[in-house]
Amino acid sequence: MASKSIQDLYTDFDSIVSGISGLNQFFMIDKSEINSKRNCSYPILVVEPPNSSSSNINKGFDDYKMVCYVLAPSSKANSDYEELALYDEAMDLFNDVLNALAAQRNGYYIIIRDSFDFDRVTKVGSDQVSGLKITFNLLAPSKLSFGSPPAPLWLTNTSNLLGFYVSSENLSITADTLDWTPVQSPTQTLQINQADRNSITGFDGVNLTFTGNNTYGNTEALTIPSITLPSGAFSVLAKVYVNGGVDVTDKVTLFSFNDSAGNYEFKVEIITSGGSQGEVEVTTQDSGGIGTARSSVIPLSPFGFANGLQTIAIVNDPTSVKTYLYTSDGLVEFPVAYRDAITTSKFMFGGSLVSTALPEPYRGFYGSLRSLAMYSEVLTESECRSIMSEMESL
User: Residue 359: pLDDT above 50?
Assistant: First the structure.
């Protein structure tokens, strides 16, 4: 990924503004220099040349403190209501800027969603214009991180690999979309999307973050809309943090497979409350009926740390009718497995459908995700541990 300079920021913002109807000019100047701009073609976007920091250069990003203004003429003849409309229009224009920044920059920029502040401003510059001042944090690839070659973002074992996803690459987030393309996908490209555009998964610049959102029509789950596994065998590996001590529901979901009718086929859940907190529950539903098994051998609530994610592997073996869970603490065998072919099913990370008849039919996830790998085979323990070791290093 190429680094980004302030000149690159200027070029990209200028290109964005030129493509937005209703936003007519762009300037990258200090606020004190706005006085020198007269009779502009309003509305305009002004971005102050940003300061940046690199608190952890190993992450490879500069953290820019962005200060932006969307400005348009005000009039004493306007009613109070008309003046309020000016601010609403400024917000709409800036939302278009953000969407273009996230969607068109190919993942080079990461917008920190919880960093925004908005202030109304009046009588700005010689033209005495009004509008909005917006401050937020923007991550961009740093030049300082490119002195040595970065670690390769791929897995050695590509046999039957369906996709390998890393949060630092190929991730595009807008106000209502999330698209995540695999860095490795030997046979097909299985795109990960947001399950619900009303609740976009958070991103802190390093990890995707989930808050246990369970309301129907408002789930943070990520999804591969259609996946087919003819033998029913699969292995899913994820570098995650499972938040403990948060009683969001009786359970949270690590991942699930769901058929086209919305019925679950396979799901891994973690008990989050009561004396069973941390127990792992695997539930399957195939032509042979429903199978459920729990284990407290390796508790997963919490699992890893907020600043130290760990890798877990779940393997579904239809032949032995077992599901295997691997962590750095050992192995757990569950005497259940999904035994049918998986056909055009929906894979969901961080969510499972319980029942649309319930007020909160989705069981969400509470924690973080950095990388995800999926194989269409039963990986052996040695294969799992080799892949887990590679994922831990990323």
Answer: no
What pLDDT score was predicted for residue 391? 93
Label residue 356 exposed, middle or buried (CB < 10 Å: 0-12, 13-18, 19+): exposed
State whether 326 and 380 are in the same domain.
yes
CA dihedral (33, 39, 41, 46) in degrees, to 10, reads: 10
Q: Which residues contact 330 (CB under 8 A, 6 or more apart)?
A: 297, 298
Q: Smallest Cα–Cα separation from 236: which of 365, 321, 326?
A: 326
**Of 370, 343, 347, 323, residue with least CA distance to 253:** 347
Distances from the Cα of 187 to the Cαs of 158, 164, 326, in angstroms?
A: 10, 12, 26
What CATH number is associated with residue 108? 3.30.980.50
CA atoms within 13 A on the CB side of 110: 23
Residues 167 and 135 in one domain: no
| Residue 214: pLDDT band with limits 50, 70, 90 | low
Q: Tell me, yes or no, whether 281 and 133 share the same domain.
A: no
129-141 and 117-124 strand pairing: antiparallel
Model pLDDT for residues 163-175, shown as the tens digit of each residue: 999 998 888 888 7
**pTM beyond 0.70, yes or no:** no
Whole-angstrom Cα distance, residue 283 to residue 270? 11
Q: Which domain holds residue 71?
A: 6-145
Distance CA 388, CA 373 (A): 10
Domain boundary among 145, 177, 210: 145
pLDDT of residue 149: 46
* Contact of 236 with 161, CB cutoff 8 Å: no
Residue given tokens 């591969």 in the structure block: 224
The pLDDT of residue 386: 95
Mean pLDDT is highest, among 168-172, 191-195, 315-319, for: 315-319
For the domain that residue 233 is a member of, what is the CATH number?
Answer: 2.60.120.200
Report if residue 336 sits inside a domain. yes
- Are the beta carbons of 333 and 321 closer than 8 angstroms? no
Q: What is the pLDDT of residues 64-78, one digit of tens each?
A: 999 999 999 987 777
- Segment 367-375 mean pLDDT: 95
Cα-Cα end-to-end distance for the chain: 15
